[in-house]
Amino acid sequence: MSDVRKQPTLHDVARLAGFSTSTTARALGNYGRIAETTREKVRAAADELGYRANPLARSMITGKTKTIGVVCADLSSPFFAEALRGISDVAKGRGYDILIVNTDEDVASERDAVALLRDRHVDGVIVSPADVRQVGHLAALQTPERALVLLDRSSAALDADSVTVDDVSAMTDAVGRLLDAGHRHIGIVTELRIEREADWQSLLGDLDHSERRELNPSSRRLLGYLRAHREHDIPIDPALVARTGATSVDSARSATTRLLDQRAQTGMTAVVTVDNTTSVGAYGAIRDHGLRVPDDLSFIAFDNLDWTTLVQPAVSVIEQPVYALGSRAAEVLLDRLDGTRDTPGEEILLDTRFIERESIRAVQQV
Amino acid sequence: MSDVRKQPTLHDVARLAGFSTSTTARALGNYGRIAETTREKVRAAADELGYRANPLARSMITGKTKTIGVVCADLSSPFFAEALRGISDVAKGRGYDILIVNTDEDVASERDAVALLRDRHVDGVIVSPADVRQVGHLAALQTPERALVLLDRSSAALDADSVTVDDVSAMTDAVGRLLDAGHRHIGIVTELRIEREADWQSLLGDLDHSERRELNPSSRRLLGYLRAHREHDIPIDPALVARTGATSVDSARSATTRLLDQRAQTGMTAVVTVDNTTSVGAYGAIRDHGLRVPDDLSFIAFDNLDWTTLVQPAVSVIEQPVYALGSRAAEVLLDRLDGTRDTPGEEILLDTRFIERESIRAVQQV
DNA sequence: CTGTTAGCGCATTCAG
DNA sequence: CTGAATGCGCTAACAG
Questions:
Q1: Are B81 and B64 contacting, i.e. CB atoms less than 8 angstroms apart?
Q2: A243 at the B interface (CB within 8 A)?
Q3: Closest approach of chain B CAs to the CA of A55, in angstroms?
């Protein structure tokens, strides 16, 4: 018995209430001057008809859609899922809906995504750029009307708010702990898919001037690793840096396996990773190799996921506030849209925390 | 130097090309009859201006938005994140965008979500209903124009397509394996938040007539557990059924702890769980209790997540094709919208798979 | 094959 | 404080 009548329109309400459409619109929209009695009559009529405003029509005029676009590399990753939840909770609380687009960490796909969101007139966009140096399409998105907030990544090429963690310091600290514990040959499993070979060289050559905001997270974390070594006056062995070809557990797993196979030559006694994907892959490879953590190898994971306390001994981790990253990004974005926020683009850093568990063993100095 | 000019409209293109707006629209929209030369000229003009159609205006007329709404209980759960990825990939491939709403597994919130999606004129909705018996708001959503597909849950009260796994059988099979291995006191950690106490009683009392489509997944899985016992002529001990109060790891953890504390009385030698949340919580509780799997307790998890192979010994699991659940739901939905699919609502069952690992130990019969 | 006319549902001038 | 008129950008009849 579904009702075949079309949805009632403002016009219908107006007729029933005995007012013009414009008065009706004012009564319902709480704008302009309106008599209290009128408002009540109109509301009664609207309720009676079950009237609901058509957001499409409204958007045509106002130019606003009460929608924010979220573009992410991989919806199914624990990191993004959690961050998205943060975004969603805040957006919902403030009356905004969310349009999501998945890009597979591909710049071309990201360009399409951005075009799509612009076409659909989203009021703002939260994005975790595939490459922080190819952001022309993101810059083009910014207008006085349309806000842009970067999530998990910041870009020197963009005057936009960003919400990230200080992962360079976080990693410098974590690797420093390993160094303090006597480790001299620490492996790292990272992603350098986008960056060119030259970048890796220049990263090595210029630890001081490397700018956070010109590097993707995994490179920033590698920079932290490198700096920790320099602070401790320990030379870097390039053979200990495993770069994965893709953002996948399998890719991380095989990169780690290579690291493990060369243990006889490198003398590696510890491994660190740069995100949840590399953490899972690396830990799996260590297991497959029949090595025990921390007896045979010390290990630090990035991101405090469930499994790190389920395995035994539990894994020490660098924790980042993933939900808060998302919720904060949404808050900043909506503040811009409200006009509550009018400062230049700001780089917001959330705190990481090192959680010590049982995956690190001190090593005897020779 | 962002361009301050507004986006060019169809009108602008028409003027530049020297045609009327309707001809221009036809040329660009590939509909109606149009001369090839005209089309080319119009296209050239459109390119020159960088014209992009305004989907809002289009939607006002066509009533279509090329958008599908996805309403889920918890975006941050691994299950939903993965399924959402499946939905997203298919939708993107077929030119649809996704509006997501999170409901926290709350029926009232789901009602709002549905209203919101209707207001926004989404072409279709994929939903994992909070309660498969309170679905009036979902029924109201269905029109010849607007399709509805249920994900992970089916409902007897709704004539809609659903994409699920046959979890009753999956669980009957898994528990059957435990029973075959000699276990006689098997604990189960499940969620019965929504169902009333009476339901639990009636489930127990009427194993045959309990209809899959009147139960939420966790209850369906419990039903599988009960049926396995009956098939093996093993009595059921209600003390072995731990019900969590909420969908959270902590809740599952403490429910499991209660089960563990009563081991002396119940003689429990194995535990099964009903989804990834209960799996993580239960496994954590077992660990905390200082029990070894499978030496002290056998264990079967639901969902083949990374951690089940990271822990040692690896955990045997009931695997369900999560990504496919999402992608399939999207396909079915879009087929409906295309008119490719015109049959009555269908219940699509995807296969689960039992993955045998090392978390089950045979038990000596007395 | 192309142009004219109308209007989707609403917000927003401007008069009254 | 209220109403009439206008138009957001586009598609859909209908003529021609």
A1: no
A2: no
A3: 6
What is the distance in angstroms measured between the alpha-carbon CA of A40 and the sugar C1' of D1? 15
Q: Is the pTM of this model over 0.90?
A: yes
Query: Which residues lie across from A72 on neighbouring strands?
Result: A102
Q: What residues of chain B, 273 to 292, have a C-beta less than 8 Å from chain A?
A: 280, 283-284, 287
Q: Could you tell me the two tokens for B148?
A: 């509805």
User: Mean pLDDT, to the nearest integer, of B305-332?
Assistant: 97
Contacts of A100 (CB under 8 A, 6+ apart): A69, A70, A71, A72, A75, A84, B84, B88, B98, B100
Is there a contact between A318 and A80 (Cβ–Cβ < 8 Å)?
Answer: no
- Give the whole-angstrom CA distance, residue A304 versus residue A178: 18
Residues 319-358 of chain B with CB under 8 A from chain A are 323
| Contact of B360 with B182, CB cutoff 8 Å | no
Place of tokens 């490719």: B340
H helices present in A69-196, as ranges = 78-93, 107-119, 136-139, 167-180
**Phi, psi at residue B4, to the nearest 5°?**
-90, -20
- Across A110-124, A166-180, A191-205, A326-340, least confident range: A191-205
Nucleotide nearest B12 (Cα, C1'): D9
Angle, helices A322-338 vs A78-93, to 10°: value is 40
pLDDT of residue B190: 95
Chain B residues in contact with A63 (beta carbon < 8 A): none
Residue B62: band (very low, low, confident or very high) from pLDDT cuts 50, 70, 90: very high
Q: In angstroms, rounded to a whole number, what is the distance separating the alpha carbons of residues B211 and B31?
A: 48
A 76-105: CB under 8 A from B:
76-78, 80-82, 84-85, 88-89, 92, 97-102
Burial class (CB in 10 A: 0-12, 13-18, 19+), B49: middle
Tokens of B317: 């699991």
Q: Which residue of B has its CA nearest to A139?
A: B2
The answer on pLDDT for A197 being more than 80 is no
pLDDT > 90 fraction of chain A, expressed in percent and rounded? 78
